[in-house]
Design a protein that fits this description.
By secondary structure, the chain is of the alpha/beta class. The protein is 37% helix and 19% strand. Helix 1 crosses helix 6 and helix 3 runs parallel beside helix 4. The longest helix has 21 residues. The model has no long low-confidence stretch (mean pLDDT 89).
């Protein structure tokens, strides 16, 4: 049984579809701030307040794909409440529910020592999860994401759009870790590694691309 937070996002949606299609996964518990109807009997959607999570059902693994931007969140504090506080709250609740392994969607450049607020928060959540007693933790650090945000009702991020254009024009000349990567490839990387994870593994963007 698996817990997933962030199933309405670009990577989270792909993780959910991968879990649904995996015959070894018997049940998927999805946690979010709004209702989600997949029509699939394996999926149970829970509408929650991440600031006061209830006890989770028993799970073996947890995937953490909650994320936003400072522009969308409205402030640095609101951004941190999603990318750090909410992900950490779900991780702790999943541990209490029996989870042994976790997967996190982070970002290239994540470092708790970064001078950039965005990268610093990403690094801080990585470190906070690494301090928890998971048997296995997989951290995916994608570069700019390629995917259809409009189909999710999300605004297209200008940085991602520019990165996609540059990647198409100059792809072979851009270091592999900094090329745009599809949300599906990020999800596949986590779905492949988390079930067999031991210790902490950081997967850079270039390693996620076929």
């Amino acid at each position: 049984m698996v817990a997933l937070a962030g199933a309405t996002g670009l990577v989270g949606r792909e993780i959910l579809q991968g879990l649904i299609g995996d015959p070894s996964v018997a049940a998927i518990h999805v946690f979010g701030r709004r209702a989600l109807d997949t029509g699939n009997p394996k999926v149970t959607a829970h509408v929650v307040d991440f600031r006061s999570l209830p006890a989770l059902p028993r799970v073996d693994e947890v995937f953490l794909a909650l994320g936003t931007t400072i522009k969308a969140a409205g402030s640095q504090e609101a951004f941190r409440a999603v990318d750090f506080d909410a992900n950490l709250a779900v991780a702790r609740a999943a541990l209490a529910a029996g989870a042994k392994r976790a997967g996190l969607v982070s970002a290239m450049g994540a470092s708790a020592g970064s001078g950039m607020f965005y990268s610093r928060v990403k690094g801080e959540i990585e470190d906070a999860l690494a301090a928890l007693p998971f048997e296995g933790l997989v951290i995916a650090r994608p570069s700019f994401l390629a995917g259809n945000r409009e189909s999710l009702g999300q605004p297209v991020r200008s940085g991602e759009g520019l990165a996609l254009t540059v990647s198409r024009l100059l792809g072979p000349f851009i270091p592999r870790n900094y090329r745009s990567v599809s949300a599906a490839d990020v999800a596949k990387s986590l779905l492949t590694r988390v079930p067999v994870a031991r210790g902490r593994e950081v997967v850079l963007s270039g390693a996620m691309q076929p």
